[in-house]
Design a protein that fits this description.
Elements lengths: L1 E10 L2 E11 L4 E5 L6 H8 L7 E6 L10 H4 E4 L11 H12 L3 H10 L15 H13 L5 E5 L7 H16 L3 E5 L3 H7 L2 E6 L2 E7 H7 L5 E6 L3 H8 L5 E4 L5 E5 L2 H11 L5 E5 L3 H9 L12
Parallel strand pairs: 3-7, 3-8, 5-6, 6-7
Antiparallel strand pairs: 1-2, 1-4, 8-9, 10-12, 10-13, 11-12
Helix pairs in contact: 3-4, 4-5, 8-11, 9-10
Amino acid sequence: MIEVEHLTKHYGQKIAVNDVSFVVRPGSVTGFLGPNGAGKSTTMRMIMGLDRPTSGHALVNGAPYRSFSDPLRQVGALLEAKAVHSGRSAYNHLLALAATHGIPKARVHEVIDMTGLDAVAKKRVGGFSLGMGQRLGIAAALLGDPRTLILDEPVNGLDPDGVVWVRQLARRMAADGRTVFLSSHLMSEMAQTADRVVVLGRGRVLADAPIADFVAGGAGGGSRVLVRTPEPDRLFGALGSAASAVTPREDGAFVVVGPDARRIGDVAAQVGAPVHELTPMDASLEEAYMALTRDDVEYRSEGVR
C-alpha cells in the first residue's frame, strides 16, 4: 500500500505539489494522470525518497521508503530508465543490483526471460533502444519480487507487443494482491489497465475515483446519444430540460447528453419527429480527463497555423 498525506513540494517560489493526499491499495491497478507539469513525477520521487517534501509524508507498505533495509524486495520502481551505467551489459547491471540484496543469480535470469531481454542480455546498455531500456528498467523493478510496483511512463518507447505486455504484467501483479501504481499519457492504454485513477492538475488532486465512476462523471451527468433527425427543433424542443446539452456535429448529427436512446425515441414518436439514427455513445477516459484538466494545463498547444 502507498499512503500519501498532505504532500507538498516547493522549488523556490514555485509550488510543484500542493497538499496532495491519496491511497494506492493492493489488489488493483491505480493510474496516475495529469498534464505535463502537474507534479506527477515529483510526487513519485517523493514517495521513493528521492526528493524531500516541503511538508507532508508518504508511506510505502506502512513505512517511509528510506527506512527499508531491503528496498528492492519492498518496492520495484521505474522512474528513470536511463539511470544505468552505459558500459555494462544488461545482465551485469541486474547482477550488480541483485548482489546488493542477496538475490540469487537465478532470479536475474528469471527477470531477463520475463522482460524479453534474452537476446540482448550480454550487450552493452549504451547501445539499447528506448524500448529495450524500458524493458531493462522494468526488469530491475521486478528483481526483488516486490510487494509494490511504481512505474512512471512504463510503455514509453515500447512497440505494440511491449505495450500489451506491460498491461498484462500490471494486471497480473495486482491479481497477486500487490500494489501497482503507474503513470501514462496513453489514455486508451490506461483505460484498459487501471481500476482507479488519481488525477493531478497544477500540483493538486483533481480526482481520485474508480475509473468507471470517473468516466461516467465525465459524461456530463447523463447518457450520451448520437441523434440524426431532419427536424431537430421539434425533437429537441420536446425534450426540453431533459437534455442537458445538445451539440451539433459537422456531419449533421447531434450529440445529446441526458436522456437515453429509448427516452429520445419515445419523445420523437410522441411529437412525430422522424429519427434516422439513435446510437448510444460510451464516454471515454480521454474525454473525461480532458474535460477535468481543461483549466489546469500548464503547457497549452495553440494548434497548427
